[in-house]
Amino acid sequence: MDRRGLDTRDVTRIVAFAAILAVLGLPGAIPIGGSVPITAQTLGVMLAGAVLGAWRGAAAVVLFLALVLAGLPLLSGGRGGAGVFVGPSAGYLFGWILGAFVVGLVVRLGGRRPVWWRTAVGCFLGGALVVYAIGIPVQSMVTGLGLRETAVTSAAFLPGDLLKTVAATVVTMALWRAYPRAFGNPTRVRA
Amino acid sequence: MISLYRPGNSPLHRLPAGPKLLVVMAAALGISLTPPSPALLAGAAVAVTGAYLLAGLGAAEPARQAWRLRWLVLVVAVSQVFFLPALTVVANVVRVVVVILLANLITLTTPTGLLVDAIERALTPLRPLGVNPSRVALMLSMTITTIPVIAGFAAQIREAQRARGVPVAPLAFAVPLLIMTMKHADDLADALTARGID
């Protein structure tokens, strides 16, 4: 993995994606269903993994969450601060880190170029299923509602996450055609 | 960037950021993980209100913070009403609100800069794993200055689409935003390299 060799270009790309995550939270969340507002930020998590790859994608999410912890209201709906890390949606936030990693792992399997089907599978697996796998147990613990009941109420997000998977796939493939440099050093990306 | 911090000079403001973060988060987790009992919750609510008074934030501040959580409260309550007895639902909702209000005390009484410093210090033990704390701190402050730049790109794209009479489509918005952002990242990298910062 390219974890050791973090050069200046990697650093600024991680920074830029952390900033994109923040900007995606600006238009405002739509509070429907479950205690976790629907947000374009999970789309950003999928894109971070798909474009930057596993390690750098996860690093961008960690950087973004560190700023939220430091007191900046960067989550959708202007939420932020230490409170969100002990609230019902805390597990989903932590899930974003592993989620972005898994997205990157699947989309860029062994340093390959992104193809549409692997991008779609990776975005759904990492951006939705992994996030649920960490988010639902934590939500159940925080709110005191049983695991199964929490999972049932969280199913309200599935349609939105499917839509986001489609959007992330289309955007990733369009970006690959328009600006392949975004995906890293072109000489390192195998066709 | 507007932080959630409220300036002040209370004992809570003067506590060092790192220990405050640890103690308050541990207390919040403790309340969160103990089974809710009315006595414990009432005690915790009184203690949290007391801490807000001690921080000089006023008695109305906890109420204002709780009001901000109204959607969360509504959603937590509605999703539980079908599964749990009413009293348990009330206890669960009160616990969630108390825990969030408690954790928000850190954010309200600590400037963002001091919390960033605390994060940097907390990363020092990870140095053998290849984590460079000062580089992380640099990345945190770089992100803060990059957010308005990217927000500017987003506004530019929206305006260009409006000028052409195109309805703002999410996909036609995301692709140019990503290209502009990644180009900006590469320019930033060139600028850093030219100045000998790596």
UniProtKB/TrEMBL annotation, chain A:
Question: Under which name does UniProt file this protein?
Answer: Biotin transporter
Q: Name one Pfam family in it.
A: BioY
Compartments, record wording: Cell membrane
Where does this protein chiefly localize?
Answer: membrane
Q: How does the record classify its membrane topology?
A: Multi-pass membrane protein
Q: Please report the organism this UniProt entry assigns to the protein.
A: Asanoa siamensis
Q: Which residues cross the membrane?
A: 12-32, 60-78, 90-109, 121-142
Recorded superkingdom:
Bacteria
What is the organism lineage in this UniProt record? Answer: Bacteria, Bacillati, Actinomycetota, Actinomycetes, Micromonosporales
PANTHER family (UniProt xref): BIOTIN TRANSPORTER BIOY, BIOTIN TRANSPORTER BIOY-RELATED
User: Is Transport among this UniProt entry's keywords?
Assistant: yes
Q: What keywords tag this UniProt record?
A: Cell membrane, Membrane, Transmembrane, Transmembrane helix, Transport
What family is it from? Belongs to the BioY family.
From TrEMBL, chain B:
Its predominant location is: membrane
**Subcellular location per the Swiss-Prot or TrEMBL entry:** Membrane
Q: How does it sit in the membrane?
A: Multi-pass membrane protein
Q: Which residues cross the membrane?
A: 12-33, 39-59, 71-90, 96-116, 136-157
Q: Which CDD domains match?
A: EcfT
Q: Which UniProt keywords apply?
A: Membrane, Transmembrane, Transmembrane helix
Recorded hits in Pfam families, A to Z, give: CbiQ (PF02361)
What is this protein identified as? Answer: Cobalt ABC transporter permease
Source organism per entry reads Asanoa siamensis
